[in-house]
């Protein structure tokens, strides 16, 4: 293979996706039993597959101590049914849909980055590299948890938004509303996408020579009606099985009361302001042996997360000076997915920060591109060292995020801070 062909963006993209498939899917069916929030989602999936309407009932428990998740809308769990229906009620079947959507999210993200930075080869590829070799998205792509489903629909929504803003038509607008609906029908915190979409359309319309309020309101109306329609459609099985509107409304009320009033404590709960610093990762699973252990530990790549806290302010200052639309979208996307959690009355966990991460990767990709453009050979050296540091950190922490065997000494070495234990 010639040097020119090897370094072609398409070749690099294919190699990166191949690396993602290798690392993200390796032994993803371990452990064979549900862990962390899977213990709520897997029973619900199996009852959906059986056509049991009681799985939608917030009072229902098939067995004492065996809860079903009813606290989120059903779309993510219904998609999980596909894997169980195709591959059986086992760990492979539970997790395969999430893995496929997680890997698909990488492709969507790359296309999104190309839309935002059409003149750059570096930003899309560098950002994709960071996405793949972070650790938190990998952990969630390997688990039957709703967050990777939500991330997939959120990224698709932003990609469709960019397509719509580039060339507006009512079909694209309806598709955008459909994707927004899928996001919210997976988890309610997908509402951050709604705020992002409405805000960016408003900003774009204001920049036009003549802002026509009725047209903007019509856009919002189409998006809202379509999203609401999709949300209702996600309960099609419930209504098909005889669920009433009254009981459905009561379920929505119970969901709201659960999230607004949850005061429970958890050993690994983490305050929203500490997520970017990775102060409190989450231990999802451990299997102990006499001299070794296998762990699934949800944390991010420290090199990526902590350097992102430098690139974001740098990007913010640059946006203030030049008011670049892509830069503004990155900043708004990051903040809209993170800051609203400061108002949440319930406990939080590190993985709630997952939806800010794609925007963090984009800010870092932009910063790396800036270094290459401004510093010549020094810039290339800095970028190369940085990417090698990211990869080294990924390989170092990979075993404790994927359940590989480590001695207790090796495990202890990876807990850099007491708050990580």
From TrEMBL:
Cellular localization per UniProt: Cell membrane; Endomembrane system
Protein O-mannosyl-transferase C-terminal four TM domain location: 246-420
Primary localization class, coarse: membrane
Highest taxon of the lineage: Bacteria
Broadest EC class assigned to this enzyme: transferase
InterPro entries linked to this entry: ArnT-like_N, PMT-like, PMT_4TMC
Keyword Disulfide bond carried by entry: no
GO terms of molecular function: dolichyl-phosphate-mannose-protein mannosyltransferase activity
Biological pathway: Protein modification; protein glycosylation
E.C. no: 2.4.1.-
Domain ArnT-like N-terminal: start-end pairs: 29-240
GO cellular component, one term: plasma membrane
Reported function: Protein O-mannosyltransferase that catalyzes the transfer of a single mannose residue from a polyprenol phospho-mannosyl lipidic donor to the hydroxyl group of selected serine and threonine residues in acceptor proteins.
Entry similarity comment: Belongs to the glycosyltransferase 39 family.
Record's protein name: Polyprenol-phosphate-mannose--protein mannosyltransferase
């Amino acid at each position: 293979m010639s040097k020119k062909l090897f370094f072609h963006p398409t070749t690099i993209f294919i190699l990166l996706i191949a690396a993602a498939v290798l690392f993200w899917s390796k032994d993803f069916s371990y452990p064979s039993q549900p862990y962390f929030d899977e213990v709520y989602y897997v029973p619900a999936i199996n009852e959906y597959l059986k056509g049991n309407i009681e799985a939608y009932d917030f009072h229902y428990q098939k067995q004492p101590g065996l809860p079903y998740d009813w606290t989120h809308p059903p779309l993510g769990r219904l998609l999980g049914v596909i894997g169980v229906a195709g591959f059986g009620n086992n760990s492979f079947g539970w997790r395969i849909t999430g893995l496929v959507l997680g890997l698909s999210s990488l492709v969507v993200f790359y296309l999104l980055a190309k839309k935002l930075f059409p003149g750059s080869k570096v930003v899309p590829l560098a950002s994709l590299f960071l996405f793949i070799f972070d650790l938190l998205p990998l952990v969630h792509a390997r688990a039957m948890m709703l967050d990777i489903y939500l991330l997939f629909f959120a990224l698709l929504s932003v990609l469709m938004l960019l397509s719509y803003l580039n060339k507006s038509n009512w079909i694209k607008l309806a598709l955008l509303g459909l994707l927004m609906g899928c996001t919210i029908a997976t988890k309610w915190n997908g509402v951050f996408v709604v705020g992002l979409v409405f805000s960016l359309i408003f900003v774009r319309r204001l920049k036009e020579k003549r802002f026509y309020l009725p047209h903007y309101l019509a856009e919002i109306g189409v998006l809202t009606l379509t999203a609401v329609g999709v949300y209702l459609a996600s309960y099609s099985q419930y209504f098909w099985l005889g669920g009433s509107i009254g009981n459905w409304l009561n379920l929505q009320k119970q969901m709201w009361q659960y999230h607004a009033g949850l005061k429970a404590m958890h050993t690994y709960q983490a305050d929203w302001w500490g997520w970017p610093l990775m102060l409190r990762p989450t231990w999802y699973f451990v299997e102990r042996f006499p001299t070794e252990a296998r762990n699934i530990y949800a944390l991010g790549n420290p090199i990526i997360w902590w350097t992102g806290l430098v690139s974001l302010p740098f990007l913010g200052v640059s946006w203030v000076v030049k008011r670049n639309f892509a830069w503004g979208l990155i900043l708004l996307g990051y903040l809209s997915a993170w800051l609203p959690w400061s108002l949440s009355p319930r406990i939080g966990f590190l993985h709630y920060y997952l939806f800010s991460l794609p925007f963090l990767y984009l800010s870092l990709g932009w910063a790396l591109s800036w270094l290459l453009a401004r510093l010549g050979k020094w810039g290339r050296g800095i970028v190369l060292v940085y990417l090698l540091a990211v990869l080294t950190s990924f390989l170092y922490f990979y075993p404790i995020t994927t359940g590989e065997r480590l001695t207790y000494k090796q495990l202890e070495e990876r807990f850099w801070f007491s708050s990580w234990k």
